[in-house]
Task: inverse folding
């Protein structure tokens, strides 16, 4: 089933970490396996990299902690080797980290080099995007990563009921559009031409972090945008290119968009006010952050909507 | 037999061996009862507690009119009510609201999520704002009135009754419809009446595309009289003209019927 949610403030910031937690917790029945956030804080000169060095389901052998510490140092040395000036690397959990650094080079070689460290997975890379995902419900993940204090302009989130790939961090949404900066996606549905698109994108040099069909949407959209298309045009093209049932949300540094397939087979409820937009698989999630009687509606089939922050 | 398990991680609420949530829950008894009328505030209550309180009022206290405040867009509210009564819901409902009902008159002063009035057998449900997809799925009888817009697959597998939509409707409206009528005042999305067996769909606006085996038919004075009567009851503005859409009965399954079966179907 899965549940997706998004919130964007127009011309201001809000407590997007706390609000996304409330929205996702209200939809926990749609997906108890894992919860993920793509949060956008104020744009920084520094690059922010969220990465994991192990999965919560990994076996904790005797040298688990020492191995992770060794691998964390390897990540730091590899960043430095590529010319990055590290500002800070902090542990966010036993196995997940947040690094900030100054770097002007290409992102793909950097992400590839980091992921070559055993167990390493780059969850996000950008100047304002931070992806946090882990097993459990929203309250659990939010407490673990202290997300209540996260202020920002927009966010998307996902509660996952695993169907076609494993229950682990790699299978959890959101997906960063590796290796494009600051682009992420959450998706509810199934893509039936996933393997076809994955092969096409791999031939263009892209690699994928998971076996999950949703990951290709992020890379697909980012690829079209890097070819010069606007987010809205890229999303409209996806309605013809992607096959299956889907409602997905995309976020970039400045925008949040939603697209529904031609059957409108997956739910989405939308509330738009002068100062913000909130949308989710169920209205109960919107009401978790907008505590008053509101007018909402369901976007129709083949509808693409994009908002600026 | 009371077999309960520990709370599932997904909800934090107790479930029994069948998966029934909050098996030990009791009606909260918070309603204010005045004669045949009652009202209560649903803020902070789970769907199960709201429904327990509602059923207590209708079935135990003998109340015939209930007002529910602050439903909070929660799911599965006011389902399975098999009794003549009046219910007013001051706010919006989530998914599966008012399903499987037989007899009540329900007024929702808000919007509803997916699958409202699924399998309704008789009664009246009026929704002041928008409704999600699968509105009136498998409706068997009664009137379902949505004053705003509705999502996709409105009246899928409808088997009777009338669905009235004040605004637009999404794709595959009346998909596999078997009986009953729909009156759509606004536009209809693609796939209107796809694979419908019977029934009638009236559309006041534009139709994006007809579905398989759905054809336009001539409006008759009886059609106009029916629409006028319904609009009079619910005080709705009638569009200038309606198109009437029915089953063309040209699908392969009609060709494969024996003559006596064909007579029954046609």
Result:
């Amino acid at each position: 089933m899965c549940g997706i949610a998004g919130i964007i403030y127009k011309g201001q910031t809000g407590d997007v970490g706390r609000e996304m937690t409330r929205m996702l917790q209200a939809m926990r029945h749609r997906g108890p396996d894992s919860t993920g956030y793509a949060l956008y804080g104020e744009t920084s000169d520094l690059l922010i990299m969220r990465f994991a060095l192990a999965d919560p389901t990994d076996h904790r052998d005797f040298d688990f902690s020492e191995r992770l510490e060794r691998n964390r140092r390897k990540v730091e040395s590899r960043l430095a080797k590529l010319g990055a000036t590290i500002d800070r690397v902090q542990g966010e959990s036993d196995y997940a980290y947040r690094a900030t650094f100054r770097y002007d080079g290409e992102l793909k070689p950097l992400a590839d080099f980091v992921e070559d460290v055993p167990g390493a997975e780059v969850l996000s890379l950008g100047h304002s995007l931070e992806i946090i995902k882990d097993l459990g419900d929203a309250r659990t993940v939010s407490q673990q990563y202290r997300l209540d204090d996260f202020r920002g302009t927009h966010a998307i989130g996902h509660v996952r009921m695993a169907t076609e790939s494993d229950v682990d961090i790699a299978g959890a949404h959101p997906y960063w559009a590796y290796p494009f900066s600051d682009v992420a996606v959450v998706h509810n549905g199934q893509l039936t031409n996933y393997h076809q698109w994955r092969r096409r994108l791999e031939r263009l040099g892209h690699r994928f972090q998971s076996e999950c069909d949703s990951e290709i949407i992020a890379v697909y959209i980012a690829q079209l945008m890097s070819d010069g298309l606007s987010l809205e045009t890229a999303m409209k093209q996806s309605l013809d290119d992607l096959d299956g049932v889907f409602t997905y949300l995309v976020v970039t540094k400045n925008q949040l968009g939603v697209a529904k397939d031609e059957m409108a087979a997956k739910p989405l409820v939308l509330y738009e006010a002068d100062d913000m937009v909130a949308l989710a698989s169920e209205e109960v999630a919107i009401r978790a952050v907008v505590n008053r009687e509101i007018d909402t509606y369901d976007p129709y089939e083949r509808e693409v909507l994009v908002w600026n922050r | 037999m009371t077999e309960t398990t520990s709370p599932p991680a997904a909800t934090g609420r107790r479930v029994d061996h069948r998966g029934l949530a909050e098996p030990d829950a009791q009606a909260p008894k918070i309603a204010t009862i005045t004669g045949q009328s009652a009202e209560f505030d649903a803020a902070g209550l789970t769907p199960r507690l709201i429904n327990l309180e509602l059923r207590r009022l209708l079935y135990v206290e003998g109340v015939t009119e209930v007002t529910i405040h602050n439903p909070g867009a929660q799911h599965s509210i006011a389902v399975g009510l098999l009794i003549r009564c009046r219910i007013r819901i001051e706010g919006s409902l989530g998914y599966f609201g008012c399903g499987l009902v037989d007899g009540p008159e329900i007024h929702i002063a808000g919007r509803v999520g997916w699958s409202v009035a699924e399998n309704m057998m008789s009664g009246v449900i009026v929704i002041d704002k928008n409704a999600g997809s699968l509105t009136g799925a498998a409706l068997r009888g009664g009137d379902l009135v949505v004053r705003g817009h509705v999502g996709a697959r409105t009246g899928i597998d409808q088997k009777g009754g009338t669905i009235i939509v004040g605004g637009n409707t999404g794709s595959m409206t009346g998909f596999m419809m078997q009986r009953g009528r729909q009156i759509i005042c606004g536009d209809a999305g693609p796939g209107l009446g796809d694979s419908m067996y019977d029934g009638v769909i009236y559309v006041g606006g534009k139709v994006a595309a007809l579905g398989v085996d759905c054809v336009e038919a001539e409006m008759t004075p009886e059609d106009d009289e029916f629409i006028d009567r319904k609009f009079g009851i619910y005080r709705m503005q009638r569009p200038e003209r309606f198109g009437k859409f029915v089953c063309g009965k040209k699908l392969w399954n009609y060709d494969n019927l024996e003559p006596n079966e064909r007579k029954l179907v046609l």
Summary: The longest strand of chain A covers residues 184-191. Chain A touches chain B at residues 28-29, 32, 136-137, 262-265, 267, 269, 282-284, 286-287, 293, 295-298, 300-301 (CB under 8 Å). Helices of chain A lie at 16-26, 64-81, 107-115, 138-145, 194-203, 215-226, 231-241, 283-287.
